[in-house]
Amino acid sequence: MRVTKRNGNSENYNVEKIHKVVEWAIKDINNVSLSNIEMNANLSLHDGITTKEIHQILIKSANDLTSTSHPNYQYVASRLLNMSLRKDLWDRYDSPPSLTKHIKTNIEKGVYDPAIFEKWSKEDIKEIESVIDHDRDYLFTYAGLQQMIDKYLVRNRANGEMYETPQFAYMAIAMALFNIVDEVKDAYECFSTFKINLPTPIMAGVRTKIKQFASCVLVDVNDDLSSIFSSVHAVGKYTARRAGIGLNVGRIRPINSSIRGGEVIHTGLIPYLKIFESTVKATSQNGIRGGSATVHVPFWHYEIEDIVCLKNNAGTDDNRVRKLDYSVQFSKLFYERLIKNEDITLFSPSEAEGLYEAFGNNEEFNALYEKYEKSRNIKFKKKISARKLAEIFTKERLETGRIYVMNIDNANEHGSWNVPVYMSNLCQEIIHPTKPISSIDDKEAEIGICILSALNLTELDNDDDISNACRIAVRTLESVIDYQDYPVAAGENFTKNRRSLGIGVTNLAGFLAKNKLKYNDPETLKLVHSTMEKIQWHLLNESCRLAAERGPCNKFNETKYANGLLPVDWYKKSVDELVSPEYTMDWEGLRARIKEYGLRHSTLTAIMPCESSSVIQNSTNGIEPVRSLLSYKKAKNGILKQLVPNYASRKNYYTLAWDMKDNKAILNICAILQKFVDMSISVNLYYNYAHFPEGNIPLSVLIKDQIYGFKYGIKNFYYCNTPDGDGNTEKSSSCESGSCSI
After folding, report:
1. Is residue 427 annotated as part of the catalytic site, yes or no?
2. Is 425 among the residues known to form the active site?
3. Active-site residue among 413, 429, 542, 736?
4. I need a labelling partner for 241 at 20 to 30 A (CA). Which of 73, 305, 515, 640 fits?
């Protein structure tokens, strides 16, 4: 049998060469077998095969052997994939090129930003190169490395040509964002040892010529054509630049409303939502993913009964907008009437003057709402049962999984902003003040921008690790703000003046397993409380240091921090029922420093989905319980097997989502996290049909969970997960596009 080498030459098949490669791949890895790998591979060999194809067969063979009884084959497959990647790039699997040569080559090919190289001296680059550890490429599991190659390493997406390995990518990101050698080295250390997770736009984009790294944007739309179509334009620009979209249409008047004294009758929300849907889905995101958007509407909008049904499969394309997701905003007034089985009233935002602006301020909103309920001058007014709306909404949420909840009161009262907020983002973890644009060049408007990262809890072994990771995370995103371009003026206005960051946590399930705890263990709440307290304190402390160095953000005065308040002051005090408010950090000392210097950033924390990076780092997704100890994740090029971290030693400590009888443990953990998080959390809930009589999940269970979450300060609910009947194959519990998941 003849084989064709990578250089095009042909030679006789030599089984010893396969032995040599597989022996290298299994060296020092326990409980794996060379013969098993080769037997699987031999079934697929044929005359004329290329050496690259043989390599791929070996990789597939090792991956196929990965199981709960033989978990270490995932590392054999990873080594083989690493070898293949390096041979494609370097024509060998060892002896990487110099950092200088690597960067120069990619600049010459037009894929790296020349500025990476220009700002560093030869001496700087030599010192920076000294810390690159190419052996860290072997920390990846097969699933992690394949995900890295598919999603994040710079490549030609037309012909598949690769331009970098993981370690060169991590270092290039650090070199692009930082200007001091020691900070570059520290950042590389955190990135390459998986202490910090970076979002898709930064991982895939920093070091290239594309300089838009916002994960999500929040676009608020006014009730006029100029604002609507300017917003469509902005959505198109940001979707094309990797961002997910949060969209607020709650100000737009309903169908059949009068325009210009009756000269025109309004067509309502649905035709405009179709325009946004087409814009989001028509725009390619640099070959990495399609676009996605979540639409926000208040519970009292006149069209709410139709809006919550826009995703379901009933109806026709004329009265459905299925490719957008929807978030309904509820207030305390709604929950009170729901519990008392009373009616609510639906209005047109354009007719109920000031009602939308008051939404989120309980006292002001309730007074106006009740005034308009009694008014005889309001034309668009409709009474419905609060329970009826709750049932319609909850039915759609259960069936589609993609109708979300925003608790507008909690969002305004228990966060860092002291100006009104009206919306969230695609994945419901970001809460920003926004101002609708009137034109694409409107410099007075504000499009909220989400710049994200997360801390990998399992890799932070002590307080020094937490402090250092918080320092690097804050300074990384601080650099992104000034390094990136802004395709829309309103986005730059928001970001440059508010400098809002969203740093989250991930690998909570792995962290609890490391500490031999499950989600419903009493000690879990204490550990979550103490850990999140430290993280939020260190993030604020680093932002305060930056404020002392560079000055506070321009709109620092529009935060509660400027009033001397901290998360330990403004959280919803019902959380004290779950865990005692005992602190280990010096909050009063921090308060005094913030009073003196201010903060460089209006917000510091948000907890987002981490679906993609959890695969890369072989960690668990965000704060989610795992669905299975071995999962099969759908990826671009097939199915990726992923075992939970440290499967052999910790498998008995993982909480399985589908085994949980209710969501109380998740809700309690999220409530405690939310105490310290100054924005929001993508809270996902799980409902297993097997836990309910005859497999029917009562809507009342979901409604009670929603009320319970509101009581304990939870701001937003994201996905409503149910088993999909497809074994262990996971549907992503992150956003569909991956935009604001990291």
Report:
1. yes
2. yes
3. 429
4. 640
